[in-house]
Amino acid sequence: MKFLIINGPNLNMLGIREPHIYGAQNYEALLGVIDSACHEAGVEYETFQSNHEGAIVDKIQEAYGKIDGIVINPAAYTHTSVAILDALKTVSIPTFEVHISDISTREAFRQHSFVSYVAVETIAGLGFEGYRQAILKLKKHLESK
Ligand code: DQA
Q: Mind listing the pLDDT tens digit for each residue in 77-102?
């Protein structure tokens, strides 16, 4: 079983960007959490981070036929990208959505997510732990199918 973990724009700047919201740990530390969660789940995985909407769309399309499950934090594209939603609909790969912060209690423009239309579940506000939970829940979800 192979997972694709996608992180959108500015998540490569974790640790520097708004640490009062996203924490002091950097993207490398997040990759460490993802690595240990995938080991715990017993799944192979690939990570991808991009600041470009089209690159994320390309990566989702490339996953077709190769990837069993997706965990995505689309970052700012969460709130704007019909293209990422359509790519996820196109490949029909079970997807969990993650946000480090609790988007439901932040600015009004962050409270709508296009990806939520296809996500099996959205996990928000748990910091990096949200990725671990998403990976373990995705594994269970796929096993139950
Ligand atoms: C985020 C929340 C988004 O609103 C924001 O644009 C991000 C990160 C989060 O992980 O909390 O870049 O997805």
A: 999 999 999 999 999 999 999 999 99
- What are the helix and strand counts (H, E) for the chain? 5, 5
| Apex 119 CA angle, 117 and 121, nearest 5 | 120
Report which secondary-structure segment, H or E, holds 71. strand 69-73
Ligand 1 neighbours, Cβ below 6 Å, are: 10, 73, 75-76, 78, 99-101, 103, 110
Residue percentage of the chain with pLDDT more than 70: 100
With tokens 């296809």, the residue in question is 118
Q: Whose CA is nearest to atom 3 of ligand 1?
A: 75
Residue 93: HSE in the Cβ half-sphere, 13 Å Cα cutoff:
25
Spatial distance between the Cα atoms of 46 and 5, rounded to a whole number of angstroms: 6
pTM of the model: 0.98
Q: Indicate the SS3 state at residue 61.
A: helix
Distance of alpha carbon 48 from alpha carbon 137, whole angstroms: 20
